[in-house]
Amino acid sequence: xxxxxxxxxxxxxxxxxxxxxxxxxxxxxxxxxxxxxxxxxxxxxxxxxxxxxxxxxxxxxxxxxxxxxxxxxxxxxxxxxxxxxxxxxxxxxxxxxxxxxxxxxxxxxxxxxxxxxxxxxxxxxxxxxxxxxxxxxxxxxxxxxxxxxxxxxxxxxxxxxxxxxxxxxxxxxxxxxxxxxxxxxxxxxxxxxxxxxxxxxxxxxxxxxxxxxxxxxxxxxxxxxxxxxxxxxxxxxxxxxxxxxxxxxxxxxxxxxxxxxxxxxxxxxxxxxxxxxxxxxxxxxxxxxxxxxxxxxxxxxxxxxxxxxxxxxxxxxxxxxxxxxxxxxxxxxxxxxxxxxxxxxxxxxxxxxxxxxxxxxxxxxxxxxxxxxxxxxxxxxxxxxxxxxxxxxxxxxxxxxxxxxxxxxxxxxxxxxxxxxxxxxxxx
Length: 428
What we know:
Strand content: 15-25%
Number of domains: 2
Radius of gyration: 21 Å
Largest sheet: 8 strands, mixed
Helix content: 25-40%
CATH architecture of the largest domain: Alpha-Beta Barrel
C-alpha cells in the first residue's frame, strides 16, 4: 500500500525535527521525505492532507493488559490491538497476569503467534515468579531468548525482599529489566480508595500511600545493592514516590518509572459519585499527589506515560463499589487526556509528550528508535493537536467499556497510525 502525507507537520525529538514535510511511503518504507512535494506519486496512492495534523514516531504503551489467554471475555489479542490502534499506538507491552500467567515459553509463543502480522507491535513481559506467587523465580533466560523484554509480577507485588533480591541477582549477567507494581499487600487488603478524608467520608477501606512507597524504596535500595540493576516502577501514584525516584536518579541509579493519564488528571474526589469506573489500583490520590506527579513529568523524573489498560466486563464493574474489580481501560483516551491535561494546560511541551509516549518506553525496553528518513520503515502516529471531541465509549474497539472518561471533553485526537505497510484510521 502506498501512502502520501502531504504538507504535514513532522515532530521527532530524536532528530531535532519539527517542520512541514511531504512523505511518500511505499510497502511500509519511506521512499521520499522532503519539504517540497514529491513528483512521483504512484496511482492508487492513499493521500492524507496534512493540514492541522501532526506526524510523530509511533506511540508506545509500556503497560497494557490484553487478558489473553484466559479472560478473553474482557479483551483478547485482536481486540486489544484494535483498541491500541484506535488510540494512536503502534506498539504495546502486555502484562503477564493472564490465566495462566505468562511464566513459560508456550504462552509467549501463543501471544506471538496471535499478534504476528498485525499493525500494532505486541511486545511481551513475563512473570518474575512462577504462577505470580512471589516465591520461585521463573526461567528468565529461557523466556528472554523467547522474546520477553521485561519481567514483572504486575498486580502481585513481590513483598518478600529475599525473592526480589534473587530476581535482581538472577538478572545481573544478562541485564534484564526488572519491574514492579509497588504495593505492600499487608497494608492494602480490602481497599477501595486512597486512605484519607474522602475514604473516611464515604466509609471505604483506605489504601495508604506508604504501602506504595515502602516497596518502591526497598526496591531502589535492592537495585543499588545488587550493583545498580535496571529497575522500572509501574504506575506510581504519590508525590513521595516521585521524590524517591528523583533521588535515585540523582545518585545515578538505573531506575525509571511510569504514570497513568488517570492519575495525573483525576483525584480521589471523583469517587464521591460511587462510580466504579473510578476504582483502580493504585487508587486515585489527593490533589497534592496529582500536582506532585505533574511536577515529576515536567522535570523528567517520570519517564513514561502508560495507560495501564485494564479491561473488565460490565458484571465485574456494575456492583457495589467495594466489590467492583479494580482497573480502567485507557488505550483509546490516553493521547487525548495527555494533550488536554498536560500540553494544553502548559505543563509539557509536545516534544516532552512524544518522549514520554514514544521514545522513552522503547529506550527503556531496549527497542530500536524510530527515525524518519528515506529508506527507513514507516512507524508513525498522526493526530490533531487542537481538535475537540467528546469521549463516547460506544466508539471504542476494546471489548470492555470501563473508562472513567466517558463524556469528558478532550482537546487533541488520534487520527491514523501507519506501521508495517498498513494504515489504520481512528473512529473515536
